[in-house]
Design goal:
By secondary structure, the protein is of the alpha/beta class. The protein has a single domain, classed as Rossmann fold. 25% of the residues lie in helices and 30% in strands. The protein contains 4 helices and 9 strands, in the order βαβαβββαββββα. The strands form 2 sheets. A 6-stranded mixed β-sheet has the order 4-3-2-5-6-7, with helices on both faces. Strand 5, helix 3 and strand 6 form a beta-alpha-beta unit. The two termini are 28 Å apart.
């Protein structure tokens, strides 16, 4: 078993658990979108690793693209203003869009609502959400993922694309960040 980074209190979800769940999600998405024109839209930067692994597990033809949305700035709290920093490269009209997000919680709700409504306004055939981590006790009621990797408690987790101030994204597991690192607890 891999030793955690020194800033990690403990590993919450290990590499093997992630790989198994991504494979199961890929199979489920493949069944649900069979025969449909599927486009995965990853929200940068947190969903990048999840999307990369997921597209290799989906066994039907698909396209994927990315959007970058700004709402946090340098703080861990949303500023309340959402803006597109990087838009899609191709049209989604009449296509089935699956938005890939790293975490669904109160902090991501504004961003995720904005992205899904924006895609619907572009006349996508359907818009659904797949999240790596769902924090239902912290999720805004209007944002419910259609597919979810894992349900987690309200812990500050990093790794596998999730970060704290741009760090820890490259960890191959999801770990709980020590409170003294982010000023918690």
């Amino acid at each position: 078993m891999r030793r955690p980074h020194p800033d990690i209190a403990h590993i919450r979800i290990n590499e093997e658990e992630i790989a198994a769940r991504v494979a199961a999600l890929g199979a489920e998405i493949s069944r649900d979108y069979e025969g449909k024109d599927l486009v995965l839209v990853g929200i940068l930067k947190g969903a990048t690793l999840f999307l990369a692994d997921l597209v290799r597990r989906i066994e039907i033809p698909l396209a994927f693209d990315f959007v970058a949305i700004g709402s946090y700035g340098a703080d861990t709290r949303s500023s309340g203003v959402v803006r597109i920093l990087k838009d899609l490269d191709e049209a989604v009209e009449s296509r089935h869009v699956l938005v890939i997000e790293d975490v669904t919680d109160k902090r991501s709700a504004l961003r995720l609502s904005y992205v899904t409504e924006n895609l619907r306004s572009r006349r996508a055939a359907s818009v659904r959400v797949c999240t790596l981590l769902d924090k239902p006790t912290r999720r805004a009621s209007e944002v419910t993922p259609d597919y979810q990797g894992f349900t987690v408690d309200e812990e500050y987790v990093v790794g596998y694309g999730l970060d704290y101030l741009g760090r820890y994204r490259s960890l191959p597991y999801i770990g709980v960040l020590k409170p003294e690192i982010y000023g918690g607890g």
